[in-house]
Amino acid sequence: MIALFAPGARRGAARTAGLVLAIATVILPALPLGPIVAQPPMPLGVLWAAYGWAADDDGTWRRPALLFTLGLLHDQMAGGPYGLFAALYLLTFLLGRSFAAIMSAPTLASIWGGFIATTAATTLAAMFLAPIAFGKGASAMQFAQAAAVTALFFPLVRSLYMNTGPTQRALQGARR
User: I need a surface site. Which of 26, 82, 111, 122 has the fewest CB within 10 A?
Assistant: First the structure.
């Protein structure tokens, strides 16, 4: 019973909740549940996961593989060509590694700024890839709007995807 309240158990529960939230933001917009769960205003939770997992990268292939799978699921649910969201989510992970390293101060402003930069770069990539995937005249405006909502809510969900304790921050700083 005491093990349920240990920091590792709480961290595992938060990561599980983060994964469930990311999956929900992929599946719910495709269901006929009304405009409140459409994207936008529903955030792209996988972007939170991609950035948080990139910032706390453990060096294994599991997180990128999970992002790729969530991207394929998003492609399926959105009815678009396979690979678009998978590519965008993997790109977010790669960009997140770079921006998280650059914006590595343990302040909310720095971490949030890194996420905003990652989201903006991913949105630029989406604007380039949308016409390739969907044909001339295709727009990534809905993706951009959903990404903006996602960036706005990042501070509220950051602890689900990133280690936020002072010990973890010190360890991350030592690794870099």
Answer: 82
Amino acid at position 124, single letter: L
Residue carrying the six token digits 């650059």? 102
CATH number of the domain enclosing 157: 1.10.1760
Residue 120: which domain range?
2-175
Asked whether the beta carbons of 56 and 111 are under 8 A apart, the reply is: no
Give the model confidence (pLDDT) of 49-73 as tens digits. Answer: 999 999 987 888 999 999 999 999 9
Whole-model pTM: value is 0.86
Nearest to 25 by CA among 52, 51, 43, 48: 43
Q: How far is 166 from 171, CA to CA, in rounded Å? A: 9
pLDDT for 27 = 95
Structural domain tally of the chain? 1
Please tell me whether the peptide bond between 40 and the residue prior to it is cis, using omega within 30 degrees of 0: yes
